[in-house]
User: Which sequence fits this backbone?
């Protein structure tokens, strides 16, 4: 385990240090005093493990492939932007555009996430990204979603708060979302339809959530006790006819 | 000649930060400098600035003009005009220290003035409108002079440079105020000039802005009808004038002003109870041209408090936090944690939902929307 004191350090220096030590064979890192440094762990291929203390900056692990990150705190905007593989665990909340264009790997958020979570995430064969949000989510959840899975649990949502923002699934044309609870239909975009979960869905959810619950210290049975609503797109090519006269 | 913007719209990816003490206790400018400096990547060195409130207690009842001059001729011309319309209580060069990255420094002065009563009577204007008229007149007609701020017990400090360098340049750590805002600018298609840096100010209103206002054209026309001249050719100035018009002149409560600028979308209005529907439909009918369109997160400050507002579909970032009597607002959470390690509460305001922090002694408080609609 390599400890790096990141307080006051520019992101370039911090990322260069991580890369240098990783090339020299160090696999585990503890980054202390992180505050606002962007692009931490970005572009790294391979599987180093980072524990971050503090608030990492925007585009955490962007374009990474295989990295594993645990954040003891909150994350900012665009966590896992275009990440290819790996796992990011946030023991707090996250900002807007989590998993922007994500192509693989997992992002677990303990509390809430901001607007446009999973915007344009996609999948290919067995490369299926998964985002799990423990709290609530803002507007435009799964906007332009082309693949992958978003699971919204709403566990710490207060009585006067809403589980989900408006315009959910705008432009969605692939992938699936599972929302724990009911959603008023006005919150859903016209590209999205709802269904109840099948046995197959529940097995899949259990599989995903058992890992999430063990990491977040939650009771899987309690989480699974409430029914989920499944959201999926009407059409794989909603704009296919837009340019065909 | 101070170079002005070549074009109307300035798309930008800026940094904003605001801090206030609701009890009105002053604190040093070092806090806001530390906060904004965390977001250096959001600026490109072409504009940085600060608005500070409560910094001139010894002159608190006079209007403080902060002014840039290209040369002594412009300065002489402004001072002649000033003597004609105001009693100058005190004037001095604003103290600065040399910072290598801050170049092409103009002459920077401050004047503490009170309007000449007999002149006000002649014009038949209120004191505020008298000052506004003077500011517009100077900024439009005196070449090489630019009034940066014109409020009481407050001032705007701005320049072409990174905000933390601008703070050092103006020695802001030596000032003590109870409300501070800061901006780091990232203009992408126009030259930066000293007057074009944020905050933009008029009377006690200051605005900092991340984003762009595609409604600038219609907002400007609307303001023109009410006597405001948009002479800076940057989108952000309309926000200052709209606040002055809607809050000071039209006497609307602060939260209603915010709902005029960023109203609920029509489908949301249609789902509201009847009386609320009526309120929001009326607001859109009467003040439709004051609606701000395009991506923005803004912080508006006055001597009474801070207001933060996002566009309705939240195309720019905004985070808020509280710790005791302190309120923090910024583009990024890290900018808050740099000056407040353990806030009591951190939240991401929804698009169109204002964060309003008022000094507890402020005269006009916020009217609850529920009461307003009933």
Assistant:
């Amino acid at each position: 385990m390599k400890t790096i004191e990141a307080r006051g350090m520019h992101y370039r220096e911090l990322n260069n240090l991580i890369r240098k030590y990783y090339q020299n064979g160090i696999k585990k890192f503890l980054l202390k005093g992180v505050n606002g440094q962007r692009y931490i762990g970005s572009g790294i291929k391979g599987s180093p493990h980072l524990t971050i203390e503090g608030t990492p900056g925007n585009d955490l692990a962007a374009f990474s492939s295989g990295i594993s990150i645990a954040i003891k705190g909150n994350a900012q905007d665009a966590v896992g932007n275009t990440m290819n593989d790996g796992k990011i665990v946030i023991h707090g909340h996250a900002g807007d555009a989590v998993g922007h264009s994500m192509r693989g790997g997992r992002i677990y958020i303990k509390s809430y996430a901001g607007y446009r979570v999973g915007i344009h995430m996609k999948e290919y064969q067995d490369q299926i990204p998964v985002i799990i949000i423990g709290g609530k989510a803002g507007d435009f959840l799964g906007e332009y979603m082309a693949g992958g899975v978003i699971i919204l649990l709403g566990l710490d949502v207060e009585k006067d708060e809403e589980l989900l923002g408006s315009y959910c699934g705008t432009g969605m044309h692939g992938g699936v979302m599972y929302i724990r609870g009911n959603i008023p239909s006005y919150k859903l975009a016209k590209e999205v339809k709802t269904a109840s979960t099948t046995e197959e869905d529940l097995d899949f959810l259990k599989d995903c959530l058992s890992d999430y619950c063990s990491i977040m210290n939650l009771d899987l049975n309690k989480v699974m006790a409430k029914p989920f609503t499944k959201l999926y797109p009407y059409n794989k090519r909603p704009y296919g006819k837009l340019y065909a006269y | 000649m101070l170079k002005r913007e070549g074009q109307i719209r300035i798309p930008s990816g800026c940094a904003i930060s605001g801090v206030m003490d609701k009890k009105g206790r002053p604190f040093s400018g070092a806090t806001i400098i530390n906060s904004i400096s965390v977001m250096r990547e959001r600026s490109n060195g072409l504009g940085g600035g600060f608005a500070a409130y409560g910094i001139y207690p010894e002159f608190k009842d006079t209007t403080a003009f902060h002014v840039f001059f290209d040369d002594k001729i412009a300065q002489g011309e402004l001072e002649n005009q000033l003597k004609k319309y105001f009693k100058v209580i005190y004037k001095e060069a604003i103290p600065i220290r040399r910072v290598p990255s801050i170049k092409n420094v103009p002459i920077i002065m401050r004047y503490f003035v009170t309007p000449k009563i007999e002149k006000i009577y002649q014009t038949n204007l209120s004191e505020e409108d008298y000052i506004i008229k003077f500011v517009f007149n100077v900024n439009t007609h005196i070449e090489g002079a630019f009034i940066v701020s014109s409020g009481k017990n407050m001032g705007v400090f701005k320049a072409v440079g990174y905000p933390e360098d601008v703070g050092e340049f103006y020695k802001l750590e030596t000032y003590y105020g109870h409300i501070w805002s800061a901006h780091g600018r990232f203009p992408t298609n126009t030259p930066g000039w000293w007057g074009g840096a944020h905050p933009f100010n008029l009377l006690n209103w200051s605005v900092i802005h991340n984003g762009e206002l595609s409604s600038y054209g219609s907002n400007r026309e609307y303001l023109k009808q009410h006597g405001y001249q948009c002479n800076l050719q940057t989108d952000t100035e309309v926000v200052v004038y709209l606040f002055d018009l809607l809050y000071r002149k039209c006497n609307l409560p602060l939260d209603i002003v915010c709902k005029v600028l960023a109203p609920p979308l029509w489908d949301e209005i249609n789902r509201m109870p009847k009386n609320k529907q009526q309120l929001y439909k009326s607001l859109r009918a009467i003040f439709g041209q004051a609606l701000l369109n395009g991506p923005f997160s803004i912080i508006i400050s006055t001597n009474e408090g801070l207001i933060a507002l996002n566009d309705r579909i939240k195309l720019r970032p905004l985070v808020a936090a509280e710790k005791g009597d302190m309120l923090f607002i910024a583009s990024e959470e890290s900018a808050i944690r740099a000056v407040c390690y353990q806030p009591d509460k951190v939240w991401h305001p929804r698009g169109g939902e204002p964060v309003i922090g008022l000094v507890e002694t402020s005269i006009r408080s916020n009217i609850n929307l529920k009461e307003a609609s009933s």
User: Anything to note?
Assistant: Residues 93 and 284 of chain B are 46 Å apart (CA to CA). Residues 127-141 of chain B form the longest helix (15 residues).
